[in-house]
Amino acid sequence: MAVQPKLKDFPRIRRAVTFYRVASIITGVLLLLLCTEMILKYTPIGLELELGGAQGFLALVPVGTVTAVNLSTGVLIVHGWFYVVYLASDIHLWSLMRWPFTRFVLIALGGVIPFLSFFLEARIAREVTAYLAEREAQAAADQQSVEAAH
């Protein structure tokens, strides 16, 4: 029998799921922005996103001609650091739910494979919520049978 989460940890698990969902969505959006930036920069299009340069407040400029704030690099850095936050939320939920390590690896891939974080976010949240409801109903039924026996 697999080790199951403790009933006393259920409130912590609910908070962990909420944190995971928020981190998952933010990481997914940043990953899509990063993919868009990579396509713009490393294909024959050859453009970078510049903030506050000579071309205006926000402009696409040829690679290597950025004179102001390079938002392309900014997206890369922000996604990298937020992926660390995403992994922290993943580790926290994984440890509370007592899942196998392969489950952790699958969820961690959500931050590096485009669109995967959105699918996993919905699936994981649905599974955890259903699991918690089932375990709480089972605990309530067990409690009632114990009280009826006395």
TrEMBL record:
It comes from Cnuibacter physcomitrellae. Pfam families: DUF3817. The keyword Plastid does not apply. This is Uncharacterized protein. The keyword Transmembrane applies. Coiled coil: none annotated. It is found in: Cell membrane. Keywords: Cell membrane, Membrane, Transmembrane, Transmembrane helix. It is a multi-pass membrane protein.
